[in-house]
Amino acid sequence: MTRNLDFCAIDVETANYWVASICKIGVARVTEGRVDKQYSTLVDPEEGFNSFNVRLHGIGPGSVSGAPSFDEVFGELFDLLDGKVLVSHTFFDRNAMNGAAQRYGLPILPVTWLDSVAIARRAWPERRGNRGYRLAALAADLGISFRHHDALEDARAAAGVVLYACLETGMDIDDWVREFDRSRARRSRPGEKDVRKASQSSTSRPGQVAAD
């Protein structure tokens, strides 16, 4: 039986503590288990930059001078991601993308989100309480070389984590989608507390800087 190893991975950098202040987007598209397309763009956040964020990713006001705003790149992203399974390392990137879309009155991307942290926890439970599931630690242990806090590099690393998890577990992308659908269904049964937060309110301040 053919295994489905087709998906995209995304990472964003933000200008400040507001989760919707996207200043860079990186996407790695994986087809049949190989990265076959990469997309990266600076984005004018139309917001001020926080010094902590600038130190983290090296992007500042001068970097985005003349860059398109989020609404100007949204069409390209929609065409690339429409209907895809989309991986992010934690749901910070999902909240940022949804928040930016809401900010500009744009539709939420019609994608199926997967969290590579949740996948890694299933694939390597022994890491809990040890080196953990931070992207840099996972990538180092799996032999994935990348430059951290660059959106495209982080997206490519998250894609690599998922591919290694598929190899480790024998599961493919369809299996992971079903696994987390079942998990959400169990948590949503009547009488049980659903501890999952569907999406943080991304358009209200303050936001949160991604720690991974």
How far from one another are the termini? 35 Å
Enumerate how many helices there are, as a single number.
7
**What is the helical fraction, as a range of percent?**
25-40%
Tertiary shape? globular
Total beta-strand segments = 5
Structural class: alpha/beta
Description:
This protein is α/β, with parallel strands linked by helices and 212 residues long. The protein has a single domain (7-187), classed as Nucleotidyltransferase, domain 5 (2-Layer Sandwich). It is built from seven helices and five strands, in the order E-E-E-H-H-E-H-E-H-H-H-H. The protein has a five-stranded mixed beta sheet with strand order 3-2-1-4-5, with helices on both faces. The protein is globular, with a radius of gyration of 17 Å. The N and C termini lie far apart (35 Å).
